Amino acid sequence: MPGGGAGHGPGSTAHLREGAGPARLRPSGRQVDPADLDVLANLVPGAQPRRVPDLTHLLRRTDGPGTVFGYRKLLRRPVEEDLLTDIARWLAERLG
Fold first, then answer.
1. DSSP letter string, 43-55
2. What is the C-alpha separation between 5 and 59, in angstroms, rounded?
3. Which among 17, 13, 37 has a CA at the least distance from the CA of 25?
4. How many CA atoms lie within 13 A of 49 on its CB side?
5. pLDDT for position 84
6. Helix residue ranges per DSSP H, 1-96
7. Under a CB-based contact definition with an 8 Å cutoff, are residues 21 and 37 in contact?
8. From the CB of residue 71, how many other CB atoms can be counted at a distance below 10 Å?
9. Positive or negative, the Cα torsion across 8, 3, 36, 69?
10. Backbone angles phi, psi at 95, to 5 degrees
11. Do 19 and 46 form a contact (C-beta atoms < 8 A)?
12. Per-residue pLDDT tens over the stretch 10-62
């Protein structure tokens, strides 16, 4: 199973999702295997996957691999505006 290990891939928890949502993933992510985004898109009807270059799990972009020591600096910056716009648009389409 991509990104997984024993039962920790996207298929192991996809059954817990009741509806589709925007899925964002850094193509070179270390926390999640990029192939998992394709797996989730196939498992969750209506999912809208989008790979965001250099996006970390902190929802901020960074050059190169993220490090524990770089997280404090990243957290001082705002969440990426285009990501927030995508999420707001997705919510407005469903709740509006």
1. HSTT-EEEE-TTB
2. 24
3. 37
4. 16
5. 92
6. 35-43, 68-76, 81-95
7. no
8. 15
9. positive
10. -105, -20
11. yes
12. 555 544 444 555 555 554 445 667 788 888 888 888 888 888 888 888 888 88
3-state secondary structure of 60: coil
AA identity, residue 57: H
Q: Which amino acid is at 37?
A: L
* Bridge partner list, 61: 55
Q: Report residue 82 CA to chain centroid gap.
A: 14
Token pair belonging to 59: 């929802």
Summarised one tens digit per residue, pLDDT across range 49-74 is 888 888 888 888 888 777 778 888 89
**Sequence-separated (6 or more) residues with CB below 8 Å from residue 5:** none
Which amino acid does the sequence have at 81?
E
Query: How many CB atoms lie under 10 A from the CB of residue 24?
Result: 17
C-alpha 37/C-alpha 93 separation (Å) is 22
